[in-house]
Write a structure and sequence with these properties.
The complex is a heterodimer of chains A (387) and B (137).
Chain A (H helix, E strand, L loop, with lengths): L7 E7 L10 H16 L8 E3 L7 H9 L5 E3 L7 H14 L5 E8 L31 H16 L3 H15 L13 H6 L2 E3 L2 E2 L9 E8 L1 H6 L5 E8 L16 H12 L8 E4 L4 H11 L7 H5 L18 H4 L8 H13 L13 E9 L5 E10 L1
Parallel strand pairs in A: 2-3, 2-4, 9-10
Antiparallel strand pairs in A: 1-7, 1-8, 4-7, 5-6, 8-11, 10-11
Chain B lengths: L19 H8 L4 E5 L5 E2 L14 E5 L3 E10 L5 E8 L4 E6 L12 E10 L4 E10 L3
Antiparallel strand pairs in B: 1-2, 1-3, 4-5, 4-7, 5-6, 7-8
Classes of the chains: A alpha/beta (387), B mainly beta (137).
């Protein structure tokens, strides 16, 4: 079975807040759900499938109850920030096999109001098999990605200047996004002179910590055709968790080397066909490594590929993260996957901010790396088409 | 100048029943790894079932305690510390800290040897944890 053409993204909504001290996480989920359903032209009573991940308070049971849903299919897959990209694929699979017709995906969180950040030690539950051999050493989001960066620099000669171009591109896009958390243009020099957090990653190599969320509505083709919004069709998807391989650890590549080819094969397209890409940008290195692993350039050439504005819409060959991405716009709940799909949908609909709208954007990709790049992460790739 | 290593309170690990020998050995300065009786491969972190072939016949082996740095990062927020992956001479790569040295001189491929640091603090001491320090010369 393939999901190619079996489901459409009918509704997409990104919560405009970036700081929500006066709202609970559940309220943010509900507001996102309402926004995406209104965008699609559907109502809560149309929803018969619900998808959420670890940010959802109480999981699928509490959220289905809280939102007042009457569903016949649920999925609580959690692969960190990549979860919601995988959820689109899972929703398409469920629709293709008749398990539901209208799937709602929600995510939200408020790490900014709760004082969480990537320099603090990761919080994990009991009985996790790997933690006794990792937590004593002080792993955090930033020093994990920093270790992957350090090895990439060693193997391929990647430089901090090249990584800085990823942030420069994000700031170019974010200046046009009124909701972006950071809207000031930055230069390569600004990135290099920002505070060193964990060698070799500077403060401006790191994404924002923001409150907010998003939601998506995935529907079967017959329903999509009855709605008024520009139809966005799911073409293909791939998933791949990657870990430490029992000690045969290799931090120079991500799970995108597996999820990417699966998605391209199912979609029947190649990286050259992609007009716009949402590439997970928890850190600048995440973008560089994923672009290599997805096949947008050869392994080891990511540094040269991202440099000199090549990722800036209207200037470079591959416009990415035209909303400003996690580096500048939004990284709600420290899980950026759903915003990645939302901006791809905006581009395919022709509804991105005018200054960054990609011309003739007919095929787009969204890719996420969720979790720890130097320990365990989920990798999810999604390819979509404007019909 | 450099960045001098400072003692840091390490998180006390959760002790799982299958790792009792590992922590007992650490307390007397020995690093244990697992080797599979079926496929012969070493693995890390230690499991009951070999992650390379799923055999349930795995044996504790004392590692030489030497290796080289595969990658690292020095955290510059708060008390500085160097997190790293060290490639043991037996093969497996393991997460660790690089200690007892100028953290600014740490580099990839640097030769290191195991040294154990106690987790927790004076009021609540925990198991000894395998860290690594540069080998002179």
């Amino acid at each position: 079975m393939t999901i190619k053409g079996m489901a459409y993204i009918a509704g997409a909504f990104e919560h405009p807040t970036r700081k929500a001290p006066d709202k609970s996480v559940a309220v943010l989920h509900a507001e996102c759900a309402k926004g995406a359903l209104e965008d699609a032209g559907l109502t809560f009573s149309d929803v018969d499938g619900y998808f959420c991940a670890g940010d959802a308070p109480g999981g699928v049971l509490s959220m289905v109850d809280y939102l007042g849903l009457n569903v016949r299919h649920v999925d609580g897959t959690d692969t960190g920030g990549s979860s919601y990209i995988a959820h689109v694929s899972h929703a398409a699979q469920a629709i293709a096999s008749g398990k539901c017709n209208v799937a709602l995906i929600t995510m939200a969180g408020r790490p900014r109001s709760e004082g969480r950040s990537g320099v603090k030690q990761k919080q994990v539950g009991a009985n996790v098999p790997d933690t006794p051999f990792e937590l004593p050493f002080g792993p955090t989001a930033v020093n994990e990605y920093a270790m992957a960066t350090m090895r990439h620099m060693y193997e391929y000669g990647t430089t901090s200047e090249q990584l800085a171009w990823v942030k420069v591109a994000a700031s170019h896009h974010a200046q046009h996004n009124p909701n972006a958390m950071l809207r000031d243009l930055v230069t390569v020099e600004d990135v290099l002179s920002s505070t060193m957090i964990a060698d070799p990653l500077h403060k401006l190599d790191c994404c924002v910590v923001s409150d907010g969320g998003g939601a998506l509505v995935i529907v079967k083709p017959e329903i999509a055709k009855s709605l008024k919004r520009p139809p966005v069709r799911v073409l293909g998807a791939g998933e791949a968790p990657k870990g430490l391989l029992g000690g045969k650890t290799d931090l120079t590549y991500s799970g995108a080397v597996w999820s990417g080819p699966r998605a391209f094969e199912e979609a029947g397209v190649t990286p050259q066909d992609i007009k716009y890409a949402s590439i997970y940008d928890s850190f600048t290195i995440t973008v560089l490594m994923q672009l290599e692993d997805l096949g947008f350039c050869k392994k080891g050439e990511g540094g040269r590929f991202v440099a000199d504005g090549n990722l800036i819409s209207g200037i470079g060959k591959l416009p990415i993260n035209t909303d400003g991405g996690g580096l500048n716009n939004n990284h709600p709940a420290s899980r950026g996957g759903i915003v990645k799909v939302i901006e791809a949908v905006r581009q395919l609909r022709g509804e991105a901010n005018p200054q960054v709208q990609v011309k003739n954007c007919n095929i787009a990709l969204a890719h996420g790396t969720g979790g720890g790049l130097a320990t365990r992460h989920g990798s999810a790739t999604l390819i979509m088409e404007r019909v | 100048m450099g960045t001098t290593y400072q003692e840091r309170s390490m998180t006390i690990p959760e002790i799982h029943p299958e790792h009792k020998e590992y922590w007992d050995a650490a307390a007397v300065g020995k690093l244990l790894v697992k080797q599979c009786d079926s496929c012969g491969e070493f693995h890390y972190y230690p499991r009951v079932l070999c992650p390379h072939c799923m055999s349930d016949k795995t044996t504790w082996v004392e590692a030489k305690g030497t290796g080289s740095i595969y990658t690292y990062s020095v955290m510059r927020r708060g008390v500085p510390y160097a997190i790293a992956f060290v490639e043991l001479d037996e093969g497996p790569r393991m997460m660790t800290n690089i200690v007892d040295c100028d953290l600014d001189t740490v580099h990839i491929n640097q030769r290191v040897k195991v040294v154990f640091k106690q987790s927790g603090d004076q009021d609540n001491p925990g198991p000894y944890i395998p860290c690594f320090t540069p080998v002179e010369g």
